[in-house]
Amino acid sequence: MLNRTLTQRLLGPCLIALALLALLIPAALAQAPDGRLQVAGAGTVTTDGKVVMIGWATARKGARITVKDRAGDAQVTVNGQPQPARRGTVQVRRSGQFLISGSRVTITVTGDSMNLSIAGNGLVRMRGVGTYSLNGGAPGAWTNKVSLSASGAGSSKVKSGGKRQGRAR
Description:
Number of domains: 1
Structural class: alpha+beta
Number of helices: 1
Helix content: 10-25%
Largest sheet: 10 strands, antiparallel
Oligomer: single chain
């Protein structure tokens, strides 16, 4: 068994990291109830508010994850490893799975491919190409902004000229 393939050596730690993340999800979700958003696509997703985010992101040179913690209580785990904050900010440039939670955080994820589950209250901005589903609703194409709350207030689309097109409900 000493001649394990590279895939086997990489798969073991990833499965352990996912199992550990799965143990943290119920506690993290209890901290940030209310709205739920599923996001899949390519580009940049930014959340601002009281949120829990779990997901994965990939990019050729590594996905970029930035967390700005304004309350000092954010927890950031990437590929099973806790990430320390420096002056209230965590910056990670690597592809993989992650779990992030905080009461007053701004989270930005940039990648060529991502799949995110977000729970809490706040504002979510999506730039790029992808789909999202708010509070279990029908999937839609990425919009500029989505209000994350239990009531699911909707989204607002902005044209390239910065003019508001309307409010979807």
